[in-house]
Structure formats: structure tokens, C-alpha cells
Inverse folding.
């Protein structure tokens, strides 16, 4: 195996990448290699669908599968080698269907169909041993000796950015929002990757095209979430447990949470959100369930301790899962793209087993002391008080906005984000989203200009909301986003964050601070390109970075 797609990848001296028997996330070599093979077959699907689409023929089932398949390969999503053997066989069937679709469309258009090679012609073995023997053909670094680290690193940027796009688009798709333009972009990127590009230029262009596609995917997801569950409103959420039977729902999937709330209605079970599902409490249609009792725990990297102590079943609906420990392995369930060998998987949103487990388990013996936080400052809430915000900026009451958003992780350097938030001056506002906020979201930052100083905009999945707010504020002030008194401090961990970064770059947002480390697949030469073209900066010392942001704005 070789994998360097996430921030926690193994690093030693100048080298980075997980290899050997297991990655830092616990993904074993077989699973990693099978994920590579799956994506290779998906490239073949993309080759055919890309050509078929140009002739007016599409295959919605294959497109949806591409989103799902890519999502399964994100960091901390699916660790089940056996599942990947199944996914590869399904991908091969869909690839054959895409080939037939393309060839029929070509003939009907009076064209001779192209005979495609590479991924399009790859015949996956029928069993795991055979597939593992083929993995070398699909490895991300297979051409590194010939092409060098820069080209391979850029291919990786495109592949990992594509994973993020697919994950967001999958979340939107399950809630009924799909966009042809997203599917076209996914197919285009797969076709490019299948062509094994050797030049920097087209790869950079593709990375930015994926950034634009990701904006569409985030817009679709925003439409899916608000269309199904209403517009998020500022909401006080209990963050301590109450007595009674309990289910904990983690991950990012509001649809699964809704299905669990329905399945537990009037059954005397309290449902708690964990991690990135915290913003669910601000959606009217979810908040209307009185047994959506509160939020329990924090970011994903603390889940082994928190899940062990939770006295009920746990459902992991999407990223970010880490190895289930013996103390809770029998009461954790996976859903959607998530998987772990031996852990029960919920298919078709039938959460009956989870309800039965909750009734059989003790639940919380007593109420904990009540503590609450406020969430739900999505784009509607912030723009609803836009006049107040603009007046406060014009009067000087608000000097600056710091968007401190993104993923958390276990690396010690991540204290930076909490240090940064705590060191922001009192006349500044902190916008936040993603699980990085758990490092500071229970702190009372007070108010400024009549607004809370800390505005929680939601999940990493809600990055669209932040971009809309920035764009609207820029319009109101008659300037570009880069001229706003706004700094973006982004913590990245995995491939959704890589896609959001590409979106920021594609939208022309400059001077983003990225940390805690720069992606290992970006070589020094590629980092130079990002610095030169987009002003991307590494994080440094929190106070010095705040001073630099404020002096740039002054
Ligand atoms: S996902 Fe991250 S931690 Fe896991 S194998 Fe890949 S680089 Fe390593
Ligand atoms: S913000 Fe990133 S690390 Fe955190 S739960 Fe979401 S995807 Fe995972």
C-alpha cells in the first residue's frame, strides 16, 4: 500500500506516506490497495460516461455509484476489504454498461466508437487475491520514477479533490439534489486521470475545475439540507446528557439522523448528536423532534473515549470513523458508505436493530448538570442581520472577521486553532464550521456590535454558507472578497477539506492560512505555485498570524 491522502499520514525526515501493513488511520494494506483498484475501475466508467455525455447519453445509476464509491475511499470511512471486492465487481458491471451506452450513442450519432485502453479496458480479477495482485496498476505513485514527484503530486491533488467533491455530492444526492454539471465534472476529471496526464498545466486547470464543481456540490448540499429540513436558525443546544435510554448519531448525514428520529418516535429514547452532526439541532424539521435531546462529545479523534462511555448504541453515518474498541464494538453500527469488518451495517435506512439495542442498553442513569451552547448561524441567520453587521463594521465596532474552520485531528500543532480563537481581539468576530471548532466552541467569547463574537455556521459540509456570507458582504461593501476585513484560517485533515481549498482557490480567494501541516502530496514546487498564484500561507504563531491579518487589512 501507499497512501498520503490525509494530514496524519506517516512522516519521517523528508518522506511522507503510509506504507507497510497499516496506515496511521488503521486502514490495512489490503483495503488500501483495493480502494486504489476500485478508483481505477471508476476511471474507466468515467472514460465512457464522459464520451457518452458529449453525445447526449447519461447513466444516472453509474454516476451515483461514482459518488458513493469515491466517498468510501475517504480517510476514516470504510475499512472493510471484503466490501471493496464487492464494490469493484459492481463498478466493473457499471463500466461495461457505460461502454455499451457510449458505443450505442456513438453509432446513433454516425460515429465510430473509440476503442479505449487503460482503465477502460482493465479487467478486475474475481477474488481478493487476484485484485491485490493487480493493485500495482492502480497505485497513485506508479509513474513517480518516470515523471517525478510534482506531476504525481498534482495527480494526487486532483484525485483527492475529486474524492471531496464526490463526498459532498453524495450527501446532496441522497437527499434528492443532483446536478448534471457535477456529474459532468466528475466524469471529466476521471477521464483526465485515466489518460495518465504528464503535464502540470492541465492538471492545475483540472484542480481548479474541481474547485468550481465543488462549489456546485456544496450549493446542492445546502439546497438539499435546507429544502428537506428548513433553514438553520440560532438554537440553544444542550451539551450534557439527560436521564434515559439513548442513541448517539455521528458523522455528517442529516437524512440518517432524520430516519433515526422517526424510528425512535414515542419510544422513550433520547437521540444525541455527536461531532459534525451538532448543527442538526438548528434545522426546524429536526429540532421539532422533542427527543433530539442534545449533543454529546466532540471531534472525531476523541470518539474512542466518548463512545466507550456512551450507554447506548452508536451510529456512524459517514466520515470520520476510527477503529471501534472492544468496549463498544458490539453496539456501534455503520451506515451508508461507512464500514468496518465485523461491525453491523444498516442497509436501506432500517434502524430497527439500533432501536432494539437502545431499549436493551441502560442509557444514562441520571441528568448531568445542564450546559448549553448556541449553534445555527448559517447564511440565512447571518445575512438576516446583515444591516447590523455592516453598520458595526462601518462604525468600527467590528474590526475584522476570522473564519476559523475545518477539520480537527490528533496532531499537537492543532492547539494553534484554539490559541488563535482565544487571542482574537474583542472587536473581531469568529465564524466557524467543521469539527475544528470543538477546540473552542464551548468558550464564551462574549458579544460585539450586538452579535455573539462566535458564530457557528455548521459542519464542514456547510462551507457554502460561509462563502455566501463572504460574497454578500463583499457585494454590500462594493469590494471583492479579498478586500473584506476577513481572514480564512483553515484546518485540513482529509479530502473534503482538500476540495474546499480548491473551491477557495477557484473563486480567487487569497491569503488562506492552511495547517497544521501542508499536504504531503504538495511538493515544494507545487507549494510555491500556490503561494505565488493564490497567496496560500502555512499557519505560524497564532498571535503573529493575527497581527499579520490585522495589519494586512489596515
Ligand atoms: S488515509 Fe491518511 S492515515 Fe490512512 S493510510 Fe491514507 S494517509 Fe495514511
Ligand atoms: S470536519 Fe473534517 S475531520 Fe471533522 S468530522 Fe468533518 S470531515 Fe471529519
Amino acid at each position: 500500500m501507499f497512501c498520503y491522502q490525509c494530514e496524519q499520514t506517516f512522516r519521517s525526515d523528508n518522506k511522507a506516506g503510509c506504507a507497510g501493513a497499516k496506515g496511521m488511520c488503521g486502514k490495512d494494506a489490503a483495503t488500501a490497495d483495493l480502494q486504489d483498484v476500485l478508483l481505477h475501475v471508476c476511471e474507466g466508467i468515467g472514460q465512457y460516461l464522459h464520451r457518452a455525455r458529449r453525445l447526449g447519453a447519461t447513466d444516472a445509476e453509474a454516476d451515483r455509484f461514482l459518488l458513493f464509491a469515491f466517498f468510501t475511499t475517504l480517510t476514516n470511512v470504510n475499512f472493510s476489504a471484503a466490501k471493496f471486492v464487492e464494490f469493484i465487481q459492481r463498478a466493473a458491471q457499471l463500466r461495461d454498461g457505460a461502454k455499451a451506452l457510449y458505443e450505442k450513442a456513438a453509432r446513433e450519432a454516425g460515429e465510430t466508437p473509440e476503442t479505449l485502453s487503460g482503465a477502460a479496458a482493465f479487467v478486475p480479477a474475481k477474488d481478493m487475491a487476484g485484485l491485490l495482485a493487480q493493485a500495482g496498476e492502480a497505485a497513485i505513485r506508479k509513474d513517480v520514477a518516470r515523471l517525478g514527484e510534482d506531476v504525481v503530486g498534482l495527480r494526487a491533488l486532483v484525485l483527492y479533490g475529486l474524492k471531496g467533491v464526490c463526498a459532498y455530492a453524495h450527501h446532496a444526492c441522497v437527499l434528492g439534489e443532483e446536478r448534471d454539471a457535477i456529474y459532468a465534472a466528475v466524469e471529466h476529471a476521471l477521464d483526465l486521470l485515466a489518460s495518465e496526464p504528464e503535464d502540470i498545466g492541465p492538471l492545475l486547470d483540472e484542480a481548479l475545475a474541481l474547485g468550481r464543481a465543488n462549489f456546485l456540490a456544496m450549493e446542492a448540499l445546502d439546497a438539499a439540507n435546507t429544502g428537506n429540513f428548513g433553514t438553520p436558525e440560532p438554537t440553544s443546544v444542550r451539551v450534557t446528557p439527560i436521564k434515559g435510554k439513548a442513541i448517539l448519531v455521528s458523522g455528517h448525514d442529516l437524512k440518517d439522523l432524520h430516519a433515526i428520529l422517526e424510528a425512535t418516535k414515542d419510544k422513550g429514547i433520547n437521540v444525541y448528536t455527536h461531532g459534525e452532526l451538532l448543527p442538526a439541532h438548528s434545522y426546524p424539521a429536526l429540532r421539532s423532534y422533542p427527543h433530539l435531546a442534545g449533543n454529546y462529545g466532540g471531534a472525531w479523534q476523541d470518539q474512542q473515549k466518548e463512545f466507550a462511555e456512551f450507554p447506548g448504541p452508536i451510529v456512524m453515518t459517514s466520515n470520520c470513523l476510527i477503529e471501534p474498541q472492544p468496549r463498544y464494538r458490539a453496539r456501534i453500527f455503520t451506515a451508508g458508505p461507512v464500514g468496518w469488518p465485523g461491525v453491523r451495517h444498516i442497509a436501506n435506512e432500517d434502524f430497527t436493530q439500533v432501536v432494539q439495542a437502545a431499549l436493551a442498553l441502560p442509557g444514562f442513569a441520571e441528568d448531568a448538570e445542564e450546559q448549553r451552547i448556541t449553534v445555527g448561524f448559517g447564511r440565512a441567520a447571518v445575512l438576516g442581520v446583515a444591516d447590523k453587521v455592516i453598520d458595526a463594521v462601518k462604525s468600527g465596532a467590528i474590526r475584522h472577521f476570522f473564519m476559523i474552520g475545518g477539520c480537527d485531528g490528533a496532531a499537537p500543532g492543532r492547539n494553534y486553532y484554539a490559541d488563535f480563537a482565544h487571542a482574537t481581539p474583542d472587536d473581531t468576530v469568529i465564524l466557524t464550521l467543521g469539527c475544528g471548532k470543538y477546540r473552542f466552541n464551548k468558550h464564551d467569547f462574549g458579544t460585539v456590535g450586538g452579535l455573539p463574537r462566535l458564530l457557528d455556521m455548521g459542519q464542514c459540509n456547510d462551507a457554502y454558507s460561509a462563502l455566501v456570507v463572504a460574497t454578500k458582504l463583499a457585494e454590500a461593501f462594493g469590494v471583492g472578497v479579498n478586500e473584506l476585513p476577513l481572514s480564512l484560517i483553515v484546518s485540513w485533515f482529509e479530502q473534503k477539506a482538500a476540495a474546499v481549498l480548491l473551491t477557495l482557490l477557484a473563486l480567487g480567494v487569497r491569503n488562506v492560512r492552511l495547517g497544521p501541516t501542508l499536504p504531503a502530496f504538495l511538493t515544494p514546487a507545487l507549494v510555491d505555485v500556490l503561494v505565488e498564484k493564490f497567496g496560500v500561507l502555512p499557519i505560524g504563531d497564532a498571535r503573529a498570524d493575527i497581527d499579520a491579518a490585522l495589519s494586512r487589512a489596515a
The radius of gyration is 23 Å. The chain has a mean pLDDT of 96. The chain has 19 helices and 20 strands. Residues 275-276, 300, 319-320, 407-408, 434-435, 460, 493-494, 496-497 surround iron/sulfur cluster (ligand 2) (CB under 6 Å).
